[in-house]
Amino acid sequence: xxxxxxxxxxxxxxxxxxxxxxxxxxxxxxxxxxxxxxxxxxxxxxxxxxxxxxxxxxxxxxxxxxxxxxxxxxxxxxxxxxxxxxxxxxxxxxxxxxxxxxxxxxxxxxxxxxxxxxxxxxxxxxxxxxxxxxxxxxxxxxxxxxxxxxxxxxxxxxxxxxxxxxxxxxxxxxxxxxxxxxxxxxxxxxxxxxxxxxxxxxxxxxxxxxxxxxxxxxxxxxxxxxxxxxxxxxxxxxxxxxxxxxxxxxxxxxxxxxxxxxxxxxxxxxxxxxxxxxxxxxxxxx
Length: 286
Prior knowledge:
Shape: globular
């Protein structure tokens, strides 16, 4: 681990990126360019103290999970992310691991989407990055591990996950998830991550086995769905999906389909502002 080089690299990348670049308000009394350490901590989901120790060369070697979080927070390019891993004494992620780190270009697009829920997902349904509105709507899913990080697995094994979708649309959504997973399995027939997930779902869910046997195939591009939030109620939303050329990652954006949904989404934003800490709050770590 090259502590001094790592510290200098992190400090310079933090100073080179502004609050607006990551979807944060500049706020008053900002005397220097770049992000504050508290803001990096908030975006990366770690303590301010740890960010300080990293920048001062006093930390233990960060894990690959922490490095991935820092790469997302600092909007590093693929080359910069690999350099970060090298400085910390880790091998950069291989192709499968890289697919689990949201691409810098998608994260920058995510930053521009302030008033609507948006997230970056892998083709297996793992949430790689979310904006604030996405967290307010459905919760933070970026820290899940094991099979739970995959949306199809949670959908078919954890009934409470379906509460966000209206009952009359749940069958349709289940079919979409299975058809999309079938398309992934067709593109990656020898990938053990795909085959393993499908095998475990077939073993644990009779509903999944039934739908999988129907052999429906479809890659989700656009859809309209009714989201049910416990605080603001039902919202009719249009779902648009931008898929990368290699089809390994996608940017999913939810926009209100009518005035009522827009008003309820605005209310959710206001309620969330009251509940969630900002970058200027006293304890920005999460």
